Amino acid sequence: MRKPKILVLGAGYAGMMTTKKLSQQLRPDEADITLVNKHNYHYLTTWLHEVAAGTATPNSSRVMISDVVNTKRVQLHFDSVVEIKKDEQRVILENGELSYDYLVIALGFETATFGIPGIKEHALKIENINSSRYIRDHIEFQFARYSSSDEKNEDALNILVGGAGFTGIEFVGELAKRVPELCKEYNVPREKVRIINVEAAPNILPGFDEELVEYAQKSLEERGVEFRIGTKIQKCTEEGFIVGDDHEEIKAGTVVWTGGVQANPVVQQSGFELVKGKVNVDGDLRVPGHDNLFIIGDCSWVMDKENDRPYPANAQSAIQEAETCASNLTSLLRNEDLQDFSFDYKGTVASLGGADAMGTILDDKKLYGMKAKAMKNIIDDRYLFLVGGPKLVLKKGKVKFF
């Protein structure tokens, strides 16, 4: 009797954890599991702002998939997904195709531009290791060019960041740490460099507690970050942003957009209906009308029926969705009842660069400063433990044990 084929597309937080759980829950005779990913490594998306700012190396946020996935239970297939033919149960890849009986789409995100002209063409984005490394190199190049040039263009030293959500704030926090180091290295006066964060909403970190937002903004401003809050970006050009009703131009040598995410374009190109950039899935994480097809992570919305809104789309949610997805796939194969996803909020901590952070944990207990930073490191290391055990924590972890 032929074993069912389970195909997992994407090795981000959701895809990796689903694969890991499936290999632990299913017996070898119950299913063949294949994980498809563009690269042979998994990267920690929530660490990429550090790579982009230059406060962490690209390798620190990269984990080789074969180091943490049981290759005796999971077949690894490194290729790019071109199209999903859901009615034929086939996935077209750049270098071939694969068939499946059960499919998990966890292809991650692309940056959402919200229709702002020029963002796609001119702004840099923190999307993956390569794009983050490029931002780091681009910033340093501006310093090197300024330092060695006879004609000093001070606008070129400006770093302009669009969006003051979680990624944007963590990024400017790391910049506040990195810029003084670059100034010292290239003999550039610190006052010549501006870090400017532009946000259309009336405050930074929409959705965060007011006291935490106030703390974060004060901390960052004291370290040289300028905020333009309640300021709409009208257009992005090669030279910077055009903002506000008066169309003010803010020039910068480095322009980074962190405004939001939407599903990988392959999802829409494969005929799935998107709502605000993602696919609405049922409570059990399956696509309506397709009992063998799950979409999780940044590609989907899962409704919180109690509050009549989607659950937050973040790493914490993706990891929990993966557990439900793997459990439901196991139940499908064993003809057992499926469960609906329920998000267990464990708190959120945002790094502000260096030893500073702020956020809430568990019963909304607020943390600030070094205590919050220590908790942020513990949260990051917890994921490493979940995906790779103590060995990976010792190798890549942020909490130092000796």
Textual characterization of the structure:
This protein has 402 residues and is of the alpha/beta class. It has 2 domains: 5-38 and 79-111 and 261-345, FAD/NAD(P)-binding domain; 113-257 and 346-402, FAD/NAD(P)-binding domain (3-Layer(bba) Sandwich). The protein is 33% helix and 27% strand. The strands form 8 sheets. It has a 6-stranded mixed β-sheet with strand order 5-2-1-9-22-21, covered by helices on one side. Helix 1 (13-25) runs parallel beside helix 9. The termini are far apart. The mean pLDDT is 95.
What is the CATH C-level name of the largest domain? Alpha Beta
The helix fraction, in percent, is 25-40%
Strand tally: 27
Strand order of the largest sheet: 5-2-1-9-22-21
Give the biggest beta sheet. Answer: 6 strands, mixed
What is the CATH T-level topology of the largest domain? FAD/NAD(P)-binding domain
> Under the CATH scheme, which architecture of the largest domain would be assigned?
3-Layer(bba) Sandwich
Class from secondary-structure proportions: alpha/beta
State mean pLDDT (0 to 100 scale).
Answer: 95
Number of helical stretches of at least 4 residues:
10
- From the N-terminal CA to the C-terminal CA, the straight-line distance is 53 Å
Number of domains: 2
Contiguous uncertain segments of 5+ residues:
none
Which radius of gyration do the C-alpha atoms yield?
Answer: 22 Å
Beta percentage is 25-35%
